[in-house]
Design brief:
single chain, alpha/beta, Glucose Oxidase, domain 1, 2 domains, globular, iron, 4Fe-4S, gluconate utilization
Length: 604
């Protein structure tokens, strides 16, 4: 193992000593030496299997058959989750063949940031993660279950399912993906049309045609945003079957992997004699592996908050500095849009996860001897799944990348740095993704233009007021102010100005999409404006230095001048009402800072 990574891991273990010990004691107390339903009264149990068929009722009366919970984020509006419609029946049949019973325990909400981008509903996006965690907890709270299967893919869904899974850490848990949609209009071309529309060069008809050609069928969006970053992280943590992440939906291989995952869940229960609860399987080393893989692939900045949140649910304390220091130790090994031209299907064709695992293991960048749902050791994840006369098998991956513009080697990486940096200065602490930035755009020193809503920037852009070098300061977008919406609608506008030769950057206490990266953006700023962060004192015209090379984020204004300024006040202006936002006030007020996971479920 690379010594820098070992040192950071040791630091995390030491920091987490008390919380991890308390967590492990909690899940030990929650486990059962027999089936969990054995602790239910006759009336409880009768309610629990009242709707089951005769055979399942007979199995559930005994103590030798496991009951596996199915938790699904299925809905048929969202392309990534539509394939899950058929999974419960497939899973139930596979679990029954393995001698158990599977019951559909809970459906959880699944919203799409692509649909809500720039809309009022986006203010609910981050908070939906906590709702998903709580919804999952409600489903599992019946204490009928000996293991769980989690069906989810996109931005907040997988992190929410992970938080709940860690909370119910005494249960063996397997995650089942559904796979990416086939490649459509290339992501780079889609981005080009968006910028053309921002400039007024094409109309909405042309824009919709381009968007529809990119997002065109069932499956996950093909760029390497938060959804596909989620899948990578879950597989690296050993919670998927090897190679399961990026197999297309509605294929025989996808279905066989789903059956195999269902059967595997039954092999990890207390009754199997091979008990492996998720709370013990996932440890500090597993979490470090997840961060390393995220950095090595230039994954979504949203995972900085999500990993912190689900790790905390398992008693493991991670912070932004850990991401920063690991990024310095981890080379960039893939170029997947927005970090390159390829989409996730092309990554898969170039060697995919199996080849990535091999590079990470041989390069001493991940801990190989961690537990997985398939047993101890990540080496088994260097094999890829195939069908041989209809039978699911795993075979060796390719010897080397089939496209060295997509997957590089540790010996010759695309960059020596993972592409994520913590920004620090008098404005506070934030993160910046540098892996997608163009040469010459890492350092921006320019006057601020202050906005308190992303739509104000659109208005200024349309009026031609932004034809200059500037740092866009978009404040009062933090967790407590607005629920931390993504500001991805700003990317085409700032990209147009960047292409015109202007030096532009963004500083915000909000988020950017996992698909962002072209424009230097210091995001997740803490403390946020509503918590008295210095960003609330910035005025248009103030000089700001955004240095992605050194990690400096500084408001270049005299301290005496800053001390004399009043703090800007948040103007609610209806942002807490409409589209259901009025229901989330209690949660919004209790969200922690971005650096502690922007979560309402734990003490800060």
């Amino acid at each position: 193992m690379k010594q820098q990574i070992v040192d950071i891991t040791d630091r995390i273990i030491k920091r987490s000593t008390k919380t991890r010990a308390a967590y492990l004691a909690k899940i030990d107390a929650a486990k059962s030496d027999t089936v969990h339903r054995a602790g239910l009264s006759c009336g409880n149990l009768a309610h629990g299997f009242a709707a089951c068929g005769k055979d399942d009722k007979s199995s559930l009366r005994g103590i030798n058959h496991s009951d596996i919970a199915i938790v699904s984020a299925y809905n048929d509006m969202l392309s990534a989750h539509q394939p899950y419609q058929t999974y419960p029946d497939i899973i139930k049949a596979a679990v029954k063949e393995a001698g158990g019973v599977a019951q559909f325990a809970a459906g959880v909400p699944a919203m799409c940031d692509g649909v809500t981008q720039g809309q009022p509903g986006m203010d609910l996006s981050l908070m939906s993660r906590d709702v998903i965690a709580m919804s999952t907890a409600v489903g599992l709270s019946h204490n009928m279950f000996d293991g769980a299967l989690m069906l989810g893919i996109c931005d907040k869904i997988v992190p929410g399912l992970l938080i709940a899974s860690m909370t119910f850490g005494h249960l063996p848990t397997v995650f089942i993906p559904a796979g990416p949609m086939p490649s459509g209009l290339p992501n780079k071309e889609k981005a080009r049309v968006r910028q053309q529309h921002a400039k007024g060069e094409v109309d909405e008809v042309a824009l919709l045609e381009a968007e529809s050609a990119s997002y065109h069928s069932a499956g996950t969006c093909t760029f390497f945003g938060t959804a596909n970053s989620n899948q990578l992280v879950v597989e690296v943590m050993g919670l998927h079957l090897p190679g399961a992440s990026f197999i297309a939906p509605n294929t025989q291989l996808r279905e066989e992997l789903t059956k195999a995952a269902a059967r595997q869940a039954t092999r990890l229960t207390q009754q199997s004699g091979n008990y492996l609860p998720i709370g013990k399987m996932v440890d500090e080393r597993s979490v470090v592996n997840a961060i390393v893989a995220l950095l090595a692939t230039g994954g979504s900045t949203n995972l900085t908050m999500h990993i912190i949140a689900f790790a905390k649910a398992a008693g493991i304390i991670i912070n932004f500095q850990d991401f920063n220091d690991l990024s310095e130790a981890v080379p960039l090994l893939t170029r997947i849009y927005p970090n390159g031209h390829a989409d996730i299907n092309q990554f898969q064709e170039a060697g995919g996860m199996a080849l990535l695992f091999r590079e990470l293991i041989e390069g001493g960048l991940v801990y190989e001897d961690v537990e997985t749902i398939c047993g101890r050791g990540l080496t088994r994840y260097t094999k890829k799944p195939v069908l041989d006369n209809g039978e699911l098998k795993w075979v060796d991956c390719v010897e080397k990348s089939l496209d060295d513009e997509i997957i590089a080697t540790v010996a010759k990486p695309f960059s020596s740095h993972g592409g994520l940096r913590v920004m620090k200065g008098n404005l506070g602490v934030s993160v910046i993704k540098t892996s997608s930035l163009r040469e010459g755009s890492f350092v921006i020193k320019a006057p601020a233009v202050v906005f308190e809503d992303q739509h104000e920037l659109q208005t200024a852009f349309d009026a031609g007021e932004l034809e200059k070098d500037f740092v866009a300061v978009v404040r009062f977008q933090g967790p407590k102010a607005r629920g931390m919406p993504e500001l991805h609608k700003l990317t085409p506008l700032l990209g147009v100005l960047q292409d015109k030769g202007f030096k532009v950057a963004l500083v915000t206490d909000g988020r950017m999409s996992g698909a962002s990266g072209k424009v230097p953006a210091a995001i997740h700023l803490c403390p946020e404006a509503l918590d008295g962060g210095l960003i609330a004192k910035v005025k248009s015209g103030d000089m700001i230095n955004v240095d992605g090379e050194t990690g400096e984020l500084t408001l270049l204004v005299d301290e005496k001048e800053l001390a004399s300024r009043e703090v800007a006040q948040f103007q609610v202006n209806g942002h807490h009402e409409g589209m259901g936002r009025e229901l989330f006030g209690f949660m919004r007020r209790n969200l922690s800072s971005a650096e502690t996971g922007a979560c309402s479920l734990f003490d800060s």
